[in-house]
Design goal:
about 140 residues; two-stranded antiparallel ribbon; mainly beta; 1 helix; single chain; 8-stranded antiparallel sheet
């Protein structure tokens, strides 16, 4: 399946367009494992077009990101933006305010694993401003 001109073939479908209430730019989400009340885990594949990102948010039970394609950004509140590339894994502790998304010139795909979902999955906060997004050094 071809997901964009910049992106290689991917093994998962692109999914549904993500809500503009929680994302700047275009992103698509395909739930691979909907929230499972026995395993307390939800798994989704998220595809961001270049420059797209999600809002600041927290996960009550934590989250793991596994980068599968492209180049992206990850930032925790009060820390510098981290560059993410294929093969990187990010462990996000519960209630840590953060955002993630594509770098300005590359599509970006990651698998998002929400853990301990009995505590809640995500609490969406304010959008990441252009000034914050463009602060990568």
């Amino acid at each position: 399946m071809k997901t964009s001109e910049n992106q290689k073939e991917t093994i998962f479908p692109k999914g549904d367009l993500a809500s503009p209430d929680y994302f700047t730019g275009k992103a698509w989400v395909k739930m691979l494992v909907p929230n499972d009340p026995i395993l307390n885990t939800a798994v989704g594949n998220v595809v961001f077009e270049a420059g797209a990102r999600n809002n600041w948010h927290t996960h009550p039970g934590g989250q793991i990101l596994i980068v599968t394609q492209g180049t992206g950004y990850y930032q925790e509140e009060g820390k510098a933006i981290q560059l993410l590339q294929e093969g990187d894994v990010v462990n996000i502790q519960p209630e840590v305010k953060h955002w993630h998304g594509a770098s300005p010139k590359s599509d970006f795909t990651h698998i998002a694993i929400s853990t301990n979902t009995e505590k809640g999955i995500v609490d969406w906060l304010e959008p990441v401003t252009d000034e914050q997004y463009n602060n990568f050094k």
